[in-house]
Every structure is written in C-alpha cells, then in structure tokens.
C-alpha cells in the first residue's frame, strides 16, 4: 500500500504540471490530449490501490475478543454466552478475564485453551481458525461446562 501511495503522489505531481501547461496555453490542444491520457492512467492506479487495500485487510485478518467469566457463564459486552464468529483463516485472539471464580476458556477443536485464572486475572490464547464449522467453547473447571459455562464459536 505504501508503494502504491507513492506512485499515486508521483502520478499527480506528473499530471498537474501538464494540466497547468494546457491551461496556460490556449493554442496547445496536443497538451490537453496528453493530460487526458495521463488522467486515464491515474484512474487505473487508483483502482489498483483499492485492490491492495482489500488484500491488506485479508493479510491482517485478526479477531480480538474480550470475554469474561463468572459462575457459571461467559460474558462479552454485557451479553451472556456470546457467539464468536470469524472467517476461515482468521487469527483469533481471546482475552479472558475472570469476573468471579476460577475459570478458563477452552476450544478443543483448535487445541486452544487459556490458563485457569482466579477473580480479577486475565489470560490470553491465540490460534488460527483454519476449519469451517460451528463449535462449542467452554470452561473446563469442575462441572462449569455442565452448569452452562459455554458459548458458540463459528468459522465461516
Ligand atoms: Cu468456570
């Protein structure tokens, strides 16, 4: 993207003097023709720039979720048992904080599990969501899972 931005700036710098010359001289239609051609090339460059932006977003595909846990539920943004949804290939980063009690955050299918933490502590785990499907994450402490300390993880 940086490279393309530089190209764009150079493109404008190159075209502007030509346009200026065309305006200054009323008897130079050839200059005007050149200017239009250059503007056409600029459009192409801008389109390429848009393409780069899309690729850049894909490269940086990372989803960060901040969840908390209590007896016996996962919470995110005030919502219980939040559904976490990502696109295949996304790097998923989970920040898990225990609001109260001893908990962890586990997602078996991706081998992802945080350390177990006490009230007020935060742990993280990161993994790549490389298989499409719907999965259940849970707390592996005691019978917390059976008591409803679960949530849904979806990879599209
Ligand atoms: Cu728990």
UniProtKB/TrEMBL annotation:
GO molecular function: copper ion binding; electron transfer activity
InterPro entries the record matches: BlueCu_1, BlueCu_1_BS, Cu_oxidase_CS, Cupredoxin
Gene3D superfamilies according to UniProt: Cupredoxins - blue copper proteins
Record flagged with keyword Electron transport: yes
Domain Blue (type 1) copper: 84-156
N-terminal signal peptide: 1-21
Keywords carried by this UniProt record: Copper, Electron transport, Metal-binding, Signal, Transport
Keyword Cell membrane: no
Protein name listed in UniProt: Blue (type 1) copper domain-containing protein
């Amino acid at each position: 993207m940086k490279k393309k931005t530089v190209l764009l700036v150079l493109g404008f710098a190159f075209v502007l003097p030509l346009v200026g010359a065309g305006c200054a001289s009323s008897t130079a239609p050839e200059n005007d023709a050149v200017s239009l051609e250059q503007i056409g090339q600029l459009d192409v460059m801008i389109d390429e720039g848009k393409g780069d932006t899309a690729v850049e977003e894909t490269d940086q595909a990372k989803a960060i979720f901040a969840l908390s846990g209590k007896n016996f539920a996962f919470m995110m943004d005030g919502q219980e048992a939040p559904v976490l949804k990502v696109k295949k290939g996304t790097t998923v980063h989970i920040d898990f904080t225990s609001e109260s009690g001893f908990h962890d955050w586990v997602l078996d299918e991706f081998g992802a599990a945080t350390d177990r933490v006490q009230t007020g502590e935060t742990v993280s785990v990161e993994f790549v969501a490389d298989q499409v499907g719907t999965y259940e994450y849970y707390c592996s402490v005691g019978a917390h899972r059976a008591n409803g300390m679960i949530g849904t993880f979806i990879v599209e």
